[in-house]
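Weekly puzzle thread! Below is a chain. First person to post its structure in token form gets bragging rights.
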Amino acid sequence: MRTSHALVGWIIGTVSCWSASAASEVADLSNLSIEELMRVEVTSVSRQEEHWLDAAAAVTVITADDMRRAGVLSVPEALRMAPGIDVAQIDANKWAVSARGFLGRFSNKLLVLMDGRSIYTPFFGGVEWDMVDLSLDDIDRIEVIRGPGASLWGSNAVNGVINIITRRATADDGMTLSAATGSNGGLAEARLSTQLAPGMDLRMTTLYRDRSASPAVGDFILSDAAETVQAQARWDYTLSPDTDLSLQARYGDGDAGTSQLRFATGTIPLQTLDVDYQTHNGSLHGRAVHRFGETGHVSFAGYWTEDSRNYGVIDYSSSTKDLEVESGWTLHSHEFVVGLGQRWITDQVESTPWLVFEASQADHDIFSGFAQDQFPLFSPKLTATAGLKFEDNSYSSAGVEWQPNARLLWKATEHHRLWASAARAIRTPSLIDNDGRFLVYSTEAEGLPVEVWATGSEGFRSEELVAFELGYRSQPRPDLSLDLSTFVNEYSDLRGSEIGEPSFKTDPIRIETELQLVNNVEITVRGIEAELRWDPTDRLRLVSGASYARYDNPVDAKETTGANLVTQSEYHVVPFKLNLRALYDLNSQWQLDSALYYVDDIETLQVDSYARLDLRLGWRPVSNIQASIGVQNLLEDQHEEFASWNWELAQEVQRNIYGRFTWGF
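Winning reply:
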């Protein structure tokens, strides 16, 4: 019932906007038209610039204007706009984000990049979204690829690649101050852009973010509030018309809380604890690009990152160094791109009673290379792409991993495209898969504590995906575009467990059962995704995205006993999702925007479906001043999006009434 009310409300608001727009049409120049969107250059699909219309992959581009008019303040919130991307807020400071299923706190089959720099965490296997806490005003666009991208980006680009591309530094920005406040917290940021010399620009940004704690549940006061401070700088230098240099530096500090349910070894009851944890991260990222001829280029890139955090259940730090060289050229209608890379990773960890490692330090290295050829096949209208990446990594016992990809694009007409692809991708073992031992469950049997422990092994292999995709993209009219994709993902060697014989332990007295982490799960996921954009008038844009996915042979993740305990945290899929957005320019200064999101039941998490309605009113009296007010989750005071997992308690997402002001000078 609440879903139908939400849809009716959204339709009434949209029709009202449409009717009013007929009287006077003033286009908002900050918006991309449908025709301009089709010509947007994307680089994450082939590592070369190509029009979105001609990309042979399921790709969505989230622009800076999309994020501003959606009223979002963080990258995970912005990703709700992309079909096929599952987003769930766990509590005030934690997120679960995945592509095409496998939704979890650490979604280990999704590779997230920032200007091509991986922010995937090999310790847990996944993404720490507080490491992506950058100012949205520094972002040019987010390229969201659904489906494997491992032939170019490497392991862990299994179900998708999200590339966050920041804007070049430019002195035109000057000084900008921005602040936002709301029911669930706020932020303050300052940005300074300046020209150091002809062709040399610098941008410096500081961001402070405060997230309010979730409301108390009865007498239980929650402790998921968070404060973060980020400092970022980007330096860009055009050395010559053919050569560009770029250098980025980031540092972040965070102090957050979480409510945890812990099993204490040798005891029967659960312990409920409020834990404060600290995060520190820094990075330095440099890139040099030289272009030759009409299409040739060579680039050198390198980055260094340091990350440390104290979770309460575990303390760890990680250091990563990465070097890469890439070159591209055209020869007899063949567009080649090749590259080599070397990465060194050092993880340090302190064991706790809940999570134990044999070694306090682990050193890993990855040597990789890739090659791709894009060429016309039989006809200029049919383009084939063949790519292959190899990786020699010390995480997996398999040795060298090969990840191929083949794509076809048929330009049926000027405005219609059909594409197909087949690919293999792997998810490398995490440090926990190889060397960890963690307490999964504790109960009582005949008066004695019974503990279930999961144990990794050096023989754990990489998880494997073989994926098949088919897509259609068109622009039948200048004001209308349609993007369809369907996929079949066949997974093998996924993480499961085998249960051992119980054993009697002393000090303290207890019974222990071991779950050995092994590659013994196979799953097939099928789905379809769609995105429709329509500009009925110059002042109104309608955007809709929908996706459906299902497991053919799902793991029964609702089981809470036996060998499936260790797998229940990741085999979750949202069967159906829908988003509808209406962006309306009241006049040259005022904007009224609405967004409706529907998310189906997640049965394996026992999370009910929900509908969320967001509204925003924006005002831009002059070019350097912007103000907005809005409400998120208008329909309900609060709703659940995720379930408590292992030791972390999930909280309900609260309604948020907010205001934001930005001043540039």
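Puzzle host: Confirmed. Bonus trivia for everyone else. The radius of gyration is 25 Å.
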